[in-house]
Amino acid sequence: MIKAVLIDDIKNSRVTLADDLKTYCPEIRIEGEADSVKTGIELIREVKPDIVFLDIELDDGTGFDILEAFDKIYFKIIFITGLDSYGIKAIKFSAIDYLLKPVDPDDLVKAIAKYKESEMRHDMKINVDYLLENIRGIKPKFKRIALNSADKVNMINIDDIIRCESQSNYTLFYIKGGEQILVTKSLKEYENLLEEYSFIRVHHSHLINLNYLKEYVKTDGGYAVMTDKSNVPVSVRKRENLLRELGL
After folding, report:
1. What span, in angstroms and rounded, lies between the C-alpha atoms of 54 and 66?
2. What is the mean pLDDT of residues 172-184?
3. How far apart are CA 53 and CA 111, in angstroms?
């Protein structure tokens, strides 16, 4: 069984989420509920849960205040939020999961499935610190992204990412200097996140940073030659979009 706690200042929200977990995710065992920063901190320390479902806005503070009380965070965090698009983007760039209110049962099931298939059991304090830096700094554009690999959190400059490649439900990042990082998230998620940073989907399995594109070869079906000497196929459906981005 997977131990979980629910922290939300609205009782009906806790009841609904608890019912959904019982119905759709029976492997989750709810060990306790809290409705404030103070009781939330006490509950986490007492239960030592695997997952914390955490509301952002609480009567006596925020979910962020709870996380700041811990020097190490070895539990999975799933925010339950109604934050605006900027707040959601900050959460995504910090590689922390979230569910929008009202919680869709399908999204809940996917979040739990992702937790079960992931081998990550690292300290998430780096992710949380980066999230707080972004949320409270109100930065217009992010410069780094947190990539959770199997054994650590990688804080990567977005400008250093050459390309991304789909590996089933995973994404393989190719970083300047030759580093490769495998992340338990789909390529689609990163396509949406990185599109404003000169990244473009050129194939169902490939996302490239145009700043590292060396040339586009029209023969042999069409492919992109990157500055790291890799050849990335360009699908027929994506070719027109790539040429448009190149002003051709």
Report:
1. 9
2. 95
3. 11
